[in-house]
Amino acid sequence: MTQEQQTRKGNAIANTYGRVNNLTSHERFRVSFCTDLDKSVLVNNFEKRGWSQVGSDDDWNFYWACVQSCRGIFSVDSGYRMNDNQMINHFPNHYELSRKDLLVKNIKRYRKDLERDGNGLAEKAESNWSNSASTRYLHLDFVPITFVLPADYNMFVEEYRKNPQSTWIMKPCGKSQGAGIFLINKLSKLKRWSREAKNAFHPQIAKESYVISRYIDNPLLIGGKKFDLRLYVLVTSFRPLKAYLFKQGFCRFCTVKYDTSVTELDNMYVHLTNVSVQKHGTEYNSLHGGKWSVQNLALYLEGTHGKEVTDRLFGAISWLIVHSLKAVAPVMANDRHCFECYGYDIIIDNKLKPWLVEVNASPSLTSTTVTDRILKYKLIDNILSVVLPPDGVPDVRWNKIPSQDALGNFELLLDEELASQEDNSHAHHNKNSRSLGNRWK
């Protein structure tokens, strides 16, 4: 076979972004994968690339792991050291972003650091929220006022007493899918819960802390129902920060119309959008799963509020995501073997202001509808195209700058490396322009 024939054969075998046919080991580096999740959207994507499945104790190149397995791999006791051709889908301390208490702590620290540096992003203004005067951040006000219990109990009580009519939402810090969440509108209810929950407010004994946040009680409603947004954000590096937004997110609707009355305060079908909660309701529709695409939401908002307002809202959502990532970047253990796809949950209020509710490190890959399965299959396919070098073989030495074609349905939110290069290029261009200008003076 001539050199030209061999090249043609190689091009036919390995097409763009690492999608390959089944190859023998002597023809190409054979990528091996393992996963803790028995999800078809994962396994089918891996096998489509000609990868072979192995166990976690075998030699693997790509590991889609649950957070517990990731914790084991990165623990000091394990002594495990990854080589240049291995990748895993979590950063060692991903919980700095996905644990509710740590997310709030990191955002508060981020604000204070910017404030101390005199950065205009930390500018504050007087605010009259529900007739109680307070100061708020003009630009970084995207997380509801939140306290960690039991540590911040006294501060919470002080805030609560400024507006005793307010409603608050309690969430266990380390749980997901709506588990353990409830609403309160009276301090007595919180105290009663504390007595009934064994050792709930005893810091030395309590195994789990809670966050209590001001409830967004004026959500934007569609068809009279509350909804939130689930958006997927891919981070390939925290230093420099490289983040991408998947353009095919969706809305999750409650099955029961929104009602702020005291009688409905404990009705989670009114207040919680989690599919894991709503699917048990009698009004749940298994065909559409109570979901609506982000594209449909944008069309609806353009029709009811206009394109300019809609564009401003989605710009604010991108802003919110970028600054939540910047808030955790300094404390995140950046590892070139890692990437992470976070599930962002965002609520839009009736003034079209987005609020960050929480961030999930392991967003569900379970498909509840046909549309869901197509979306999540495409999500995984696009993730692999972005995180892998053009030849499809995991390699930490790659600069993690994918081509425009490789992005698929992802759009770049921020790449600090590219931004730095552009800044340097502009500075160099301006310097040359000034020197040429001076020459003629």
Automatic annotation (TrEMBL):
Keywords: ATP-binding, Cell projection, Cilium, Cytoplasm, Cytoskeleton, Ligase, Microtubule, Nucleotide-binding
GO molecular function: ATP binding; metal ion binding; tubulin binding; tubulin-glutamic acid ligase activity
Main location: cytoplasm
Catalytic activity field: (L-glutamyl)(n)-gamma-L-glutamyl-L-glutamyl-[protein] + L-glutamate + ATP = (L-glutamyl)(n+1)-gamma-L-glutamyl-L-glutamyl-[protein] + ADP + phosphate + H(+)
InterPro entries: ATP-grasp, TTL/TTLL_fam
UniProt keyword ATP-binding, yes or no: yes
Short name of one Pfam family: TTL
Region (Disordered): 421-441
Ranges for domain ATP-grasp: 345-388
GO cellular component, one term: microtubule
Places the protein is found: Cytoplasm, Cytoskeleton, Cilium basal body
Record flagged with keyword Nucleotide-binding: yes
GO-annotated biological processes: microtubule cytoskeleton organization
Family, per entry: Belongs to the tubulin polyglutamylase family.
Quaternary data: Part of the neuronal tubulin polyglutamylase complex which contains TPGS1, TPGS2, TTLL1, LRRC49 and NICN1. Interacts with PCM1, CSTPP1 and LRRC49.
Protein name as catalogued: Polyglutamylase complex subunit TTLL1
Lineage of origin: Eukaryota, Metazoa, Ecdysozoa, Arthropoda, Hexapoda
